[in-house]
Amino acid sequence: MELLDRYLAAVRRNLPAEEAADITEELRDVLLARAEEREAASGDANWPQLLKEFGHPLAVAARYRKHQWLIGPELYPYYVHFMKIIGLIVLAVTVVLATFKAAFGDGDIGALVAGLLASLWWAAVASVGSVTILFALIERYGGAERHFRHWKPEQLPDVSEKQPGPWESAFQVGTGVLFLLWWVDLIRLPDFAAGSSFRMDAAPIWDVMFWPILALATARLVYNLLLWLRPRWRLVRGLLGAATAVGGILILIPLYRAGHWVDVVSTGLDAGSATGLESSLNLALRIAIIAVGVIWAIGSLGELWRMVRNPQTSPAAVAS
What we know:
The protein has helices spanning 2-12, 20-42, 47-54, 57-62, 76-104, 109-141, 144-149, 166-183, 205-208, 210-229, 234-258, 271-309, 315-319, and strands at residues 198-202, 262-266. The protein is mainly alpha-helical. The chain folds into 3 domains: 2-62, no CATH class; 72-194, no CATH class; 197-320. A two-stranded antiparallel sheet has the order 1-2.
């Protein structure tokens, strides 16, 4: 029995502390019963062979532990969608920034290619790592298992109701997650101006608007998740969509009024070229802010129109 005690002690060391005693006694009963059967059949229990067949102590203990995977089978398809979308975004952004550096920098082509590959590698590692950790946390604490276990067929969208496809939903949510990770500095874009004769610094307005933009991005991410996972929560979704659209316009107003969004600091570039580059970048950002404002305004009107067009939406529908 000494071998059995040693085996059970090895298993117990890897069991959840609150269940270790009960599980160990259960395993002892199972193994003793198997030993009796073997002894009755062959005259020898052969404990070493029996325990080997039963399994390594770590493998046996693992059967009694929860969360045996980093990302479970329910979340894994979403994780794959996210990684594909975010990988494409990181690739596109890195290539665009590298092209910008090639246009305005003064490095040779070999150094630019090497810098592109290095930036792409580290951006990919940071993005993959951050998103994997995020999904692991959702798997462990986010109630994903509960969501899939308690879903209701009544929550499925109407056939006539237009819904985004899985790739569109993954793109919207993935972009929102990637932006939030970047905004709070958990991942960083490649420093495309590194090694060039200038660098770019964000204007003070971005520090002033940090929290409003963070709140808006978070709310918009929640909206896209509701659109994806809770399509029949029309009232909540409509109110949140309209609120984020209006909130976006309210944020764009002080951003536009700032009139200056990026500073180009010369580290070798002549003053005239630096000033011209700064003016061009700020002009491009001014146009972008106007375009985003128009898009947000259309989105706000669209959300309000959908709420008016569907007056049957009620708090009761939200809970369905």
